[in-house]
Amino acid sequence: MEQAVRAKELQLVVFQLANETYGVDIAKVSEIRELQKITRVPRCPDFIEGIINLRGRVIPVVDLRTRFGLPAGERTANTRIVVVEIGGHTIGVIVDEVLEVLSVAGDAVEPTPPVITGLEADYLLGVAKLDDRLVILLELDRVLSRNEQSALMEGAYANGALDKAV
Amino acid sequence: MASFEFSDEDLKVFFEETEELLQAMEDDLIGLEKGDEVEARLASIFRAAHTIKGSSATVGFTAMATLTHSMENVLDRLRKGQTNVSTAIVNHLFTAMDVLRKLTADAAAGRESNEDTSPVLGLLEMDLEEDASAAPAEATVPPAGAATAVAVTAAPSAEAVVVAATPPWAGLDLDEFEKQALQDGCARGDTLLGVRVEFHPEAAMLSVRSYQVYLHLEEKGRLVATRPTLSEMEQEKSGAVLTAFLFTLEDPKVLAGEIENIGDVRLALVEPVGPDGLFRAESPVLTPSAPAAVSTAGTAVSVGAATPAVVAAPRPTGVPAARSEAPAARSVPPAASAESGASAKAGMRTVRVDVELLDNLMNLVGELVIDRTRLAQSMGLLDKAVDSQDSDVTRELAEATAHVGRITTQLQEEIMRARMLPVETLFKKFPRMVRDLAQKCGKQVELIIEGQDTELDRGVIEEIGDPIMHLLRNSVDHGIEPPVARASAGKPPVGMVRLSASHLENHILITVEDDGKGIDVEGVKSAAVRKGLVASELAARMSTQEALQLIFVSGVSTAEKVSEVSGRGVGMDVVRRNVEKLNASIEMDTTVGVGTRITIKLPLTLAIIRALMVQAGSGTYAIPMASVVETLIVAPEELKTIHGAEVIVNRGQVLPVHRLTRLFADTCGGDPRALVIVSVGGRKSGLLVDKLLGDQEVVVKNLGLFLGSIPGLSGATILGGGEVALIIDVQSLLSPHAAMTAREELIA
Fold first, then answer.
1. Is B309 helix (H, G, I), strand (E, B) or coil?
2. Residues on chain B touching A48 (C-beta within 8 angstroms)
3. In this complex, is the C-beta atom of A52 within 8 Å of any C-beta atom belonging to chain B?
4. Does the pTM of the predicted model rise above 0.80?
5. Using CB atoms, which residue from B708, B722, B724 is nearest to A51?
6. Contact across the interface for A56 and B704, Cβ inside 8 Å
7. How confident is the prediction for chain B on average, in pLDDT?
8. What ipTM score was computed for the predicted complex, to two decimals?
9. Where are the alpha helices (DSSP H) in B291-339?
10. CA–CA gap between residue B538 and residue B525 (Å, rounded)
């Protein structure tokens, strides 16, 4: 994966999340929408913010801050829903702000530093150095993979999400 | 020949056709066993087996071909009356068909089949041997149907040779090599037959059919020439007509009959040809008759009829004529039926459409429906905002909006109709099931099926199959008594089970009825009490209907016990669950000693449901009307608690009350004022919500795989304003409370 990243130039949609800058492959992004009314879905993992109406389709929306365990941020005029196509699912991802679309040369990408380990290292493709900025390359497929999602689901139930409901 | 490649399309047609033929065989076999129209049914089964044999051999599924060949042998003896139809033979044939089904399924899935055909082949072999001694001499007699029904007997006489100058194969463009082969053969004095086969012009696999005829002819003698040639067949250049010259000792009548048994053949003309006739046909004098070779089938029939040749058109011969009168004929592709003129046109008016395409269309229409509502709303706002000077524009817009609205409604109805299938597609698999089960239970059961033309949404049909199967199984297994018991009860020995479908307003009713022993309501009650499902005082107060509902309660491991006493209950909780999933309801009516009737009331479609819209906390929810019993406005003091659980007294009954916001862990407090009484598995409970917003039709949207199935929710719908509302699945919403509810009732 890392080699593939280095080999060619990457087109990234770059967004802000808390005080970090992330980038995802533009090929996975189908559109960027302003925040719209999200219908909360009960009995779901926390990071699933709810569902929205995307031109007649109902798609789930994930809050990336919650997913990454970051403190909940305030919704502002800059908050966006990045709609991505992953493994046959169309999913909305809430980010603080979409900054730009960047072309990054493959050799500007470095592997994830060893300070990040475990599950998280899995969905980080690497870090792109741009002047004084660091853009963290995200592998969204893994961030939102079904397996992980169902694991989280089970976790949610085990933690008593259902009991709470009762 | 093994190099003959079949397109996926051909194979698909083959599989579809095989499935249809197997179904037809099954229907006929059941009819056969009952003893009605035995001859016609035998002929029909034989023909179906023969067609499968031919086409499976052609496409290279030898196991299927071998098996159908064995079936054919047995059927042939039955047909000729050399063997009597016995339960054993019918069972063997059923077994063979099951194996065929598996083989077909494996082949269709493109996997190597591990189905062992030898046991069933052995069974069929046994059937043959058992009666082999009975009439060995007859074995060589040609099929009765083909031999007796031919109106004009033609011998290879001088007359035949003379008129053979005009047959449709005249003018066949033979190459030098073929001419030489014909001349040589004729010089040796071999019998030459001219063969002309016409297929139904709309038949789907002309090349395959031609090839089948080719193989058949090749087996029977020395095949000199065919048009289309083998290589043309391989290139799929076959037309609706095949002509051939064959040196053979076969009887032309028999051969014509055999060819006519190949699928999609509408006319087979086999005629002896003398060397004179053959070559005169090529002379310029006779060319006017050549167009007949390419003319339509109608002409060809009259040519054949006017000629003292052997004509085996489907109608005149005994076997196929009888077949086309058999009720099963309709499940055979229309192309194969006798009235080709009418059915050919009907066939061309239908198109096979992928189910997914229909689903997509339905989704798109669903969106249109939402937009229509939005458009109407915006129109209303615009009307208010714009002053009267611009009224022309607004009027124009209003008209367009109204028109779009009407068109959308119509479109929605049409698409929904396109998704409908007659329940026959589902019902047709039950006669076999009931027969097998009755046999196993040692009972005599007649299954009467009514209203199979009733149409239902494809989705509903898929879901309702299991519940109906369970109900039928219960009727046969527990409802109908053994013959002896029936006799002593003064009932006819053959039990009746009636499965019917009918239309009632916006619903479809499916009824399973039997004239068995009925359900002992008191027995059910006492069993439920014993199992701790209900308190005895409560049981005593229960009405018959309420007590019957207990049958559907799945009391963890108790369902089995209830069934022992009542003779019912096997899978009844499954029935209830499936039925409720469909937003359908189920009713039961029983009289001890007389019988039981169970009615399932189904919605016409699953894509659009009627729902009660409610507001609870921060959300808007849709509760399917099928689950709603009634709604009440409640004052806070009407809610009581029993051991900390909220309840309400409604019509003298203590009902558990659940706050929707609490069930969904919605922290937004709200002001619960309205109670929706819902019914799950015959148990009523109250759902406390803030506000009732009225009922409306909602388009059901799947929540998608990413979210998966969430207990308590069955989907979402988009409201007129564009926002999304969740659709509540009352059953799974309240199911964790089933135990609690039972306890509450005990306390009560």
1. coil
2. 707
3. yes
4. no
5. B724
6. no
7. 74
8. 0.82
9. 291-294, 297-306, 318-325
10. 10
